[in-house]
Give the backbone structure.
Amino acid sequence: MTEKKPANAGKSVKALQENTNKPTQAAPPTQPDTAKIDIDFSHGLAAFLAANSISLGFTSYQTGRLYLVGAGQDGKLALHEAQYPQAMGVAGDNERIYLGTLTQVVRMENVLTPGQTANNVHDKVYVPRNMQTTGNIDIHELGIRKNGRLVYINTRYSCLCEPDIKHSFKPIWKPEFISKLAPEDRCHLNGLAMVDGEPKYVTAVCRSDVVDGWRDRRHDGGVIIDIDTNEVMAEGLSMPHSPRWYGGKLWVLNSGSGELGWIDPKDKSFHPVAFFPGFLRGLAFHGNFAATTLSKPRHGRFEGLALDDKLKEKDADAWCGIQILNLETGSVAHWLRFDGAITELFDICILPGVRNPITLGPNSVEIRDFITFE
């Protein structure tokens, strides 16, 4: 089996146009596409990514975008995007990215070989190679098992599942308090933590077993559950998201209070480490740093939480963007901020060993003629 090489194999691939991923035959653009979006970022963010040999991938279901952020050869920050309807959970590495969308799970493959570049600039080109249709099950966070199989949170049906070759999904676990699988988003199951390549912990906004019941328990109904034992690892949280096992600790975003913290297994208490000015979803670690996505509280649904009082206390406005926390100092080392039409982000992943990636959207002009073969 030979390695996949672009048809115009060599040290550089010229078939791409930078940052243009716009469909030629598509529905009229939505307001976030046409309205102004301003992007600002901290001085030194590009250098930080380059020094750590990483890039960032993050999503916005509001604008239907997968964003990739890296460092260009000129030392400047490079941001690229591709359109995917309701882009949600994202997980990946230097060769593959998985993305959950409105009705599909997308697998993207890097088609470049080591040392090869596209446009003499991009060291990775992630191309969608498989788009498995699930229907609208409200996919949230994703995980990749050590055997390579994908698992993901099916929020609409309140379960953890994996792709099925024949059906929309294959449920593999549900909370004990959920009496049956139904398209009712009963507890708002949302976050997934992998441990040693297997799904281990999940977060839910509450233990409700009725349709849309979680909306009445946003303040203090949140739980973290061990899926192997069904033990509740922590409770009394406010809209928890994105549990992660890192450095021997179970970390979680207590989104309703805007805090990142960890769970003490002895008394199952939440220990806040840092406050962020926004509704938190999406968490990734690298070395002594934690990166999280921030959103402005959505009108009606995420308002009236402790986050509102904390923002007033600090005389701060809510953010939409990314902040990277130095876990040793407790201070924000770098950040990227959106203003304007975009107000909500979802998930984030760190791509190790990736300098300046790009991805081709499934409806982009470039993908029609960007052909690779083994």
Remarks:
- The CA atoms of residues 126 and 359 lie 5 Å apart.
